[in-house]
Structure formats: C-alpha cells, structure tokens
Write a structure and sequence with these properties.
Rossmann fold; five-stranded parallel beta sheet; about 30% helix; about 260 residues; two-stranded antiparallel sheet; alpha/beta; single chain
Length: about 260
Amino acid sequence: MMKRFVITGLFAAVCATGFAEESTQTEKSVWATPMDSTTVTATDKAKLPTSLPKEIHWFRNSSEYRACAIQTYKMATQVVEAKAKDLTSGTWAVILDADETVLDNSQFQKELGMSNKKFDPKLWDEWVMRGEAGLIPGAKAFTDRVRELGGIVAIVTNRNVTQQKITEDNLKKVGVYYDLIYCKSGESFKEERFKKVEEGDKEKGIGPLKVIMNVGDNIQDFPKARQTLRNAADEGEFKDFGDIFIVLPNPMYGSWERNPQN
C-alpha cells in the first residue's frame, strides 16, 4: 500500500541481523525537480536534501531490514510447510499484498524524498507504470515454495485495477509467479477481495480455497484488522500473528501514520 514517508518504531517481532542490500533500480525520475529545470537557481539546489530520510535509508541500505524480510519469509515458509501436510494440492491458498510485501518501491520513496516532494497519487501512478519495482528479499523463495507444496499464490493489492497489467508484468519481471491477482476497483479495505480468493476462479480451473495465511506490511492487509488493535489490553489479541498472519516491516508509510503520536 502506498502513502508517504515518516520515521517510526518498527513492528519489532522479526528483526535480527543480515547482509546489506544494494538497490540496482534505475535512478531516473518521471517528474521534474528543480534540478531538472532550465531555470534552476542556487537557492533551488540548496533546498534539495543531501541525504535520504532515515526510514528510507534503513529500508534500502540496512543489514537489519534485509535480515527482517528474509527471517519473516523463512518463518512463514516453516508455518506453511507444517500446514500443507494435511491439505490437498490445489485446495488452499496464501494471500500476499504486493507493495513492500513482494514488490520493493523504495526507489519511488527515494526519488520523492530527494526531490523534496510529498506523496502525490499522480506521481505514484507514474511510478507504477514504469514497472521498475524491485523484489522484497525472501518473497520469491517463499512464493515458489508455496506453489511447490500445492498452494495457490494470490496477490491482493490496493494498486488500481487499471494498473493490473503493468503490475502483473512487474511481478513476472522480478520472478514472482502467482495464480490469482486482485487489484482495487472500489474501497481500499480488502475484505471483499479476500472473499473472492476463497471462492476460487472457475475460468482458471481453481475451485473454492482455504486461505491458510495472509502476508503484508500494513495491518489492513489482514482480515478485519485495523490500527485500533494497537490498543488491545491483552497480547492474546495478536494470537494470529506468526501463524496465519505474517507482517513485514515498513517504516516508510502506512495506515499507522494516522495514529496519535504518544
């Protein structure tokens, strides 16, 4: 899910150590910045940031982020392997969000931050149409294993339905294969699309499915879960996390940005 960037504490359950990851994505930008203008002034240049916002730097360049992502997907794989033993091939599914769960859009966040721009839906749409999102560490190995075990990989994303073709192409570009994909055509909440996954797809020869896991980077990537869950008095309210709900860290943006800053 795509919003804006703000630094915050991380969903810390999965952080450990790892190896630094260098981004190889294209550095070009699709929107004009003061640096691109023929009327650029010294004042314009002085206003541009000289370093990445910390949350973007951490996401793109830290060993810890890569370790968190790989560790999370390794844990998810172990859970799926255990559950799949009692399930018939082709009758069950894993649902994943796309952005910052499978696809890495931190290049977009970098371009936004380094040009002193705030999130703009138009800029986001332009970025999506470039089809240059990278791969979140661990995502390909996980989805490959799900399919190997006989599971259906379903992508449920809040990218607009008009962007489905380029999203499909981008997923294929990074080597992630899926069986179902549902983009947003109405509201951002995903419950209706989760139901569509459960119903299967007759045209694709996929019958009704048992969803055994949801993977995402936003609390709203999980059925009926909302930011109010943070106020739960009992940690038991989080019992599904680490089992049927798997969360990846995303300090760059999310529904958490609207929470009170206590």
